[in-house]
Amino acid sequence: MELFNETTDLLLKKGIEVRSPYIPYLQEVDMVEKQHFLAGWWGEQRPLTAAEITHLFSNIQTNHMGTAVITGFAQVAKSKDVRDYFKRGKEISKEQIEVFSKSLHEDDLPAPVTWDAQVQDTTESPFSDKLMLFQISLMTAAGMGNYGTAISASPRRDIAAVYVRLQGEIGLYAEDGLNLLIKHAWLERPPHAADRDQLMK
């Protein structure tokens, strides 16, 4: 925690860390009185809630981190199909960052900045394609989990619908990653229940 705080302070001093969005403190309890609180597709939209802001901001941050990692992996991957898969993942991530950032900007809130410039220009891989593809599969699965959590904390229908759409998009991307792992014989079958029907034959 001390290292995290020191790092954050240094980033802030150098002006390369975007502060998390600031919202005013509540002066009194304000109860929701109308169904319009859930609206979002048409008409006037209510401002984002603190939970919605938190999830949008953190999902932009994790996508930025994923974009930087996958950029580095795409530069060094030896297999063309793995490299193409990484490039596609980078494009998906960048598009999703734009969608989340737009929601924050509409409420005059800051969005995190990219880390792409920090990726070294090397083409020599310190890792195998198998390890890099497995790592991206893990990050994609974690991203889907983050989106699921964000859906549950986003009462505004338009925000929840965006997460559902984007989750489907990365779900298809994750499936293609598993197909690549299977194609290259890199996917170990996880422990599973006994196949009783097979045992009874």
Write structural notes for this entry.
This protein has 201 residues and is mainly α. It has a domain of 138 residues: Ferritin, CATH 1.20.1260. The protein has 6 helices and no strands. Helix 2 packs antiparallel against helix 4. The longest helix is centred in the first third of the chain and has 27 residues. The N and C termini lie far apart (57 Å). The model has no long low-confidence stretch (mean pLDDT 90).
SSE topology:
Layout: H1 2-14, H2 50-76, H3 80-106, H4 129-152, H5 157-183, H6 196-199
Short description:
InterPro entries: DUF3231 (IPR021617), Ferritin-like (IPR012347). The protein has six helices and no strands.
How is the main sheet built? none
Fraction of residues in β-strands: under 5%
Shape: globular
The name of the CATH superfamily of the domain at 50-187 reads Ferritin, core subunit, four-helix bundle
Q: Give the radius of gyration.
A: 21 Å
Distance between the termini: 57 Å
- Summed up, the helix count is 6
State the share of residues found in helices, binned by percent.
55-70%
Q: What structural class should be given to the helix and strand makeup?
A: mainly alpha
Q: What CATH architecture of the domain at 50-187 do you see?
A: Up-down Bundle
| Helix and strand sequence | HHHHHH
> What's the level 1 CATH class of the domain at 50-187?
Mainly Alpha
Would you count the extended β strands for me? 0
- Poorly predicted runs of 5 or more residues: none
Q: What's the CATH topology name of the domain at 50-187?
A: Ferritin
Mean pLDDT, as a whole number? Answer: 90
Pfam families: DUF3231 (PF11553)
Protein name: DUF3231 family protein
InterPro entries: DUF3231, Ferritin-like
